[in-house]
Amino acid sequence: MPRNTILRLVSLTVLLAACNGPREVTVEVMVLDLDANPIVAPNLPLVILPYDRDSLLDLLERQAARPRPHVATLDSLFAAFRVPYLEVARAAHAVGRYRDSMTTLKTAMDTLPRGDEAYRLRFQLFAQLSDSLERSEARREQATTALRRARRTFVPLNDSLRHEVRDWEETTFRGYDSLVTALADRTDRTGLTDTTDSAGHATMRVGRGAWWVYARAWDVEDPNSEWYWNVQITGDTVRLDDRNGNRLPTY
Question: pTM, whole model, 2 decimals?
Answer without folding.
Answer: 0.85
